């Protein structure tokens, strides 16, 4: 049985020592003092460890089942969902007027990591609801908000997002689901949607489906797509539930992982729906939530890596196998623990330096979303738009790799289901795919975000790195050597890649797009390098001050040194690949594959 | 339903254009002319595609079941096993005197890739038998050989290898299973073994377990381990089956993949066994088969990557999604096929250039094993010993990554089980673990093989690369630039890493061991770089000659150019990591993780 402990201390360090959130002038941040966030995280951690985590393996083993059109979630899910609702966790960062607690997104994200690390499949029921509620909040009429939001914020009703169809995923312009206007403001929605997470289940009284569909006669392709609210049960004027709508579950998909979440084929058969936002502006309505949703998926990459890491460390300390080549460490035992071996260390340090760096990156990103939303800061909005595909693509790729590495620490025991390590890998795999497959994230980054607003945001990013380096260099030789210098090298690699794209992409866009995946990864490394440089600085300040827990801060600096020395050099490889352009990538005829 | 096509043309190219096997003076090789091997591969390909492949998903879905102590394999496995036996495939490279066909190992390996690519879990029943039979062949008495080998070569009886126990995997010195001598040449074996592939099943009349155990009173640790033959049913003097031995299945493990293979907990309760080889020399007996067994696992890394790749290509050609940014390619369709997109190309080229390079590497390795065994060539034996951990560790890591990339081409369809892509990933995962987890391979490479025989073999490898570069440079500028130059750079990186280990490892062995995993990977890249340089040369020679299929050879050269340009630069990153030594890897106390 795996363990899960909420990373409260690490989270607090990032929120307060690094981001210093309570000193920020973002509305709502001044309330987020260390004592307060500590109390919230402590409570969330208890829910994660005691309520959600014990159901993680149960969800994987039992899965969801469809019987006579009704979806049943695994044993214990319903009770746990009730506890989440009762604790008020579902509306933590939702507006007070709809029953939420109006906390900033940065705190919701910190809590979300813990819930997701404890049980990703379970938390998705709430996560999709949060996404759907955010869409209604951003694009709904007052009437729609009043009708749906209170019950969605409390998770009495849950939500879904219906985009994919059997023949179209990324290219939603090919969509066939149609919405016929009925003249009374309502539409009849017909079509099939697939891969609908939390599509149906037995934990809520109603499910509010947000469905992309085309109104006949509208523009071709993606420009003719609109977004609709399609409740499972129609909601009467008085807010009570009326008749069952024309939406049903066709099937539950058999998946590699996240078995505890019901991934459904949803059939819409003249289901009644109402337009959310404007006609034919469905994609725009979806896109306003994209940064949040993608950051949430990037967070899953972190959360699964963190959970897997915790278990790998435990196993590496417990399992006795072989002897330390530099001298026996456990003379009273038959062998030394795995953790004495350098390659096990290398493996664990890869994981540790990733998860802590990723957590800083995500919380920084979440604070940018707050800045954009709560302060209306356009620069923050631009920067988080740029970084969103990096957070999503890089963190889910690397997070997955880390779950594979954690599994590897267990040897054969990592491959059998008994120890739970296979599940982390299988669950983490989906995050590389949904909410835009990572290749699409790379395309978004290089094909769209780099040049957005005249390249202003990427220049701002480089300036930020440069300013940080300048302001913090020259005070401590060891810090400069371990952090500032590698950060400069990596950032220069990234700039060189950007320059290559500008120059060679002009001649042939494929020269840029062939390197998009490498670019996404090198960008991610530079961001984690920046995070580590900031964390090391904060840790050193704490050490220079009156920090009582010196071990914690010294470990933080040493973990950062590992990242800078061992992980960051990847940027050079990515740059070398990128600079070979499209030549070898595009050389073959399709028939020659 | 996934597809599988045997890569006959690619295999023939390697065997004849690159390795030129029929011109070799290794005994038995002169028979291996292109027409002959082509016919064998053609037949093997039919078995793979028509008999084994259709059962791959069946095996995954049904798994094996244990009922009243009896293990049942999935539907169709028994029939398919009969067909393998009838076709004589089980004894292809086994000696004629025991009913085999005495073909060289290189041909057995080429055929093995096809069978394994079609159905890894199934082929393991035969693979383990092959391994056990090889051990008896190498270490058994004439009586033992006569008693067991004919039925094992024909797979009337299958075999298993019993090493792991619950508390010990890599560190077999901790073993508890004991073997009490009975004074009549037999022993009573008692203990529990876990993770026993093909441990029991319903496809053979008898199962010959090879079991590592300790004879009481022998040396401590690994030096007191002996190897025993423990048949499921005792074999009478006349060769007929006698009473059931004291060995039983405790459980079938639930695993991430290879569900079609019965991975058993085996309980030995005073089971009768006979010593194989010498007392307390059990590990030596195991090690003589290690190169073959590990090459076989490396081959699984290739085979799953190849199978996954074939399907990813098919999907990328069929699935219409988005438009080529440089101009519409499929104007009559609603969208262009995925394969027009540069990042999909990058992904597919990664896979293609890996599988073709890996195949050359493995077949070259297999020919070295033939040279060592059939010609008694000590240098070949030394070189393949050096390269074995690279073949096993690098090819299974990369092979796994490639199945993940193939899955990614499918987007959401890669995550649901319906399309079969998840299975390739789940099946491929085990190869990184069994037959020595890849971290142990890296340790074997750096801690043992590099310095073996005074470093003679690694020097021979570098000489080989240097000689090849020298002999083939200066004739064709494009070839030099695309192949010779990158190969030189990568080889220089590898040498620099080896030099670092020598110098810094003297001071502290952890400086070398902290970089062992990176070294294994950079070594693998250099080997694949060498393979590609050789393949490109052979392809160019064919083009310069009268090759009719120009596309095939041009594609070969272009695929090689991709590998050299896009994959080989990884060596620089690995070197940079290695040169940071043990400092950051070993900085933390165990308690600080």
From TrEMBL, chains A, B:
<dbReference type="InterPro" id="IPR009075">
    <property type="entry name" value="AcylCo_DH/oxidase_C"/>
</dbReference>
<dbReference type="InterPro" id="IPR006091">
    <property type="entry name" value="Acyl-CoA_Oxase/DH_mid-dom"/>
</dbReference>
<keyword id="KW-0274">FAD</keyword>
<dbReference type="Pfam" id="PF12806">
    <property type="entry name" value="Acyl-CoA_dh_C"/>
</dbReference>
<dbReference type="InterPro" id="IPR052166">
    <property type="entry name" value="Diverse_Acyl-CoA_DH"/>
</dbReference>
<feature type="domain" description="Acetyl-CoA dehydrogenase-like C-terminal">
    <location>
        <begin position="461"/>
        <end position="589"/>
    </location>
</feature>
<feature type="domain" description="Acyl-CoA dehydrogenase/oxidase N-terminal">
    <location>
        <begin position="78"/>
        <end position="156"/>
    </location>
</feature>
<dbReference type="InterPro" id="IPR046373">
    <property type="entry name" value="Acyl-CoA_Oxase/DH_mid-dom_sf"/>
</dbReference>
<comment type="similarity">
    <text>Belongs to the acyl-CoA dehydrogenase family.</text>
</comment>
<dbReference type="Pfam" id="PF02770">
    <property type="entry name" value="Acyl-CoA_dh_M"/>
</dbReference>
<keyword id="KW-0560">Oxidoreductase</keyword>
<dbReference type="InterPro" id="IPR036250">
    <property type="entry name" value="AcylCo_DH-like_C"/>
</dbReference>
<dbReference type="Pfam" id="PF02771">
    <property type="entry name" value="Acyl-CoA_dh_N"/>
</dbReference>
<dbReference type="InterPro" id="IPR037069">
    <property type="entry name" value="AcylCoA_DH/ox_N_sf"/>
</dbReference>
<dbReference type="InterPro" id="IPR009100">
    <property type="entry name" value="AcylCoA_DH/oxidase_NM_dom_sf"/>
</dbReference>
<dbReference type="Pfam" id="PF00441">
    <property type="entry name" value="Acyl-CoA_dh_1"/>
</dbReference>
<feature type="domain" description="Acyl-CoA dehydrogenase/oxidase C-terminal">
    <location>
        <begin position="281"/>
        <end position="444"/>
    </location>
</feature>
<protein>
    <submittedName>
        <fullName>Acyl-CoA dehydrogenase C-terminal domain-containing protein</fullName>
    </submittedName>
</protein>
<dbReference type="InterPro" id="IPR025878">
    <property type="entry name" value="Acyl-CoA_dh-like_C_dom"/>
</dbReference>
<keyword id="KW-0285">Flavoprotein</keyword>
<dbReference type="InterPro" id="IPR013786">
    <property type="entry name" value="AcylCoA_DH/ox_N"/>
</dbReference>
<feature type="domain" description="Acyl-CoA oxidase/dehydrogenase middle">
    <location>
        <begin position="161"/>
        <end position="269"/>
    </location>
</feature>
């Amino acid at each position: 049985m795996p363990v899960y402990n909420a990373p409260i201390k690490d989270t607090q360090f990032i929120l307060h020592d690094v981001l210093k959130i309570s000193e920020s002038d973002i509305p709502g941040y001044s309330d987020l003092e260390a004592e307060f966030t500590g109390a919230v995280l402590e409570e969330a951690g208890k829910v994660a460890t005691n309520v959600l985590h014990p159901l993680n393996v149960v969800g994987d083993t039992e899965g969801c089942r469809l019987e006579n059109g009704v979806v049943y979630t695994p044993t214990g899910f319903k009770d746990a969902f009730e506890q989440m609702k009762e604790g008020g966790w579902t509306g933590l960062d939702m507006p007070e007027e709809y029953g939420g607690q109006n906390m900033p997104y940065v705190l919701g994200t910190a809590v979300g990591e813990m819930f997701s690390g404890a049980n990703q499949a379970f938390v998705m029921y709430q996560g999709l609801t949060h996404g759907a509620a955010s869409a209604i909040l951003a694009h709904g009429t007052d009437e729609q908000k009043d009708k749906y939001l209170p019950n969605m914020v409390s998770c009495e009703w849950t939500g879904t997002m219906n985009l994919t169809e059997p023949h179209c995923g990324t290219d939603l312009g090919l969509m066939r689901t149609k919405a016929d206007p009925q003249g009374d403001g309502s539409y009849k929605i017909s079509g099939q949607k697939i891969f609908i997470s939390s599509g149906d289940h037995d934990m809520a009284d109603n499910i509010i489906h947000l469905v992309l569909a085309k109104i006949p006669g509208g523009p071709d392709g993606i420009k003719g797509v609109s977004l609709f609210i399609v409740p499972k049960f129609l909601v009467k004027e008085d807010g009570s539930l009326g008749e069952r709508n024309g939406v049903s579950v066709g099937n539950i998909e058999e998946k590699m992982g996240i078995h505890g979440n019901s991934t459904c084929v949803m059939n819409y058969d003249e289901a009644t729906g109402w337009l959310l936002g404007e006609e034919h502006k469905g994609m725009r309505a979806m896109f306003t939530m994209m940064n949040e949703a993608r950051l949430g998926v990037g967070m899953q990459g972190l959360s699964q890596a963190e959970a897997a890491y915790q278990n790998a460390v435990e196993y590496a300390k417990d399992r006795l196998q072989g002897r330390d080549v530099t001298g026996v460490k456990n003379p009273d035992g038959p062998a030394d623990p795995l953790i004495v071996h350098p390659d096990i260390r290398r493996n664990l340090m890869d994981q540790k330096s990733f998860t802590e760096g990723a957590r800083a990156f995500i919380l920084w990103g979440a604070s940018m979303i707050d800045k954009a939303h709560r302060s209306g800061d356009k620069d923050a909005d631009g920067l988080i738009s740029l970084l969103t595909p990096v957070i999503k693509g890089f963190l889910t790729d690397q997070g997955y790799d880390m779950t594979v590495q954690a599994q590897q620490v267990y040897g054969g025991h990592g491959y059998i289901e008994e120890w739970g390590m296979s599940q982390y890998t299988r669950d983490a795999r989906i995050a590389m795919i949904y909410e835009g497959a990572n290749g699409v994230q790379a395309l978004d980054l290089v094909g769209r975000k780099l040049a957005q607003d005249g390249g202003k945001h990427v220049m701002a990013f480089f300036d930020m790195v440069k300013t940080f380096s300048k302001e913090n260099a020259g005070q401590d030789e060891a810090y400069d050597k371990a952090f500032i210098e590698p950060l400069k090298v990596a950032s220069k690699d990234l700039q060189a890649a950007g320059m290559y794209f500008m120059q060679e992409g002009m001649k042939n866009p494929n020269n840029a797009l062939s390197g998009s995946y490498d670019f996404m990864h090198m960008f991610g490394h530079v961001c984690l390098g920046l995070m580590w440089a900031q964390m090391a600085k904060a840790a050193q300040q704490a050490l220079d001050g009156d920090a009582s827990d010196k071990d914690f801060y010294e470990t933080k600096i040493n973990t950062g040194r590992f990242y800078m020395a061992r992980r960051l050099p990847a940027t050079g490889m990515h740059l070398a690949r990128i600079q070979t352009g499209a030549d070898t990538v595009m050389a073959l005829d399709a028939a020659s594959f």
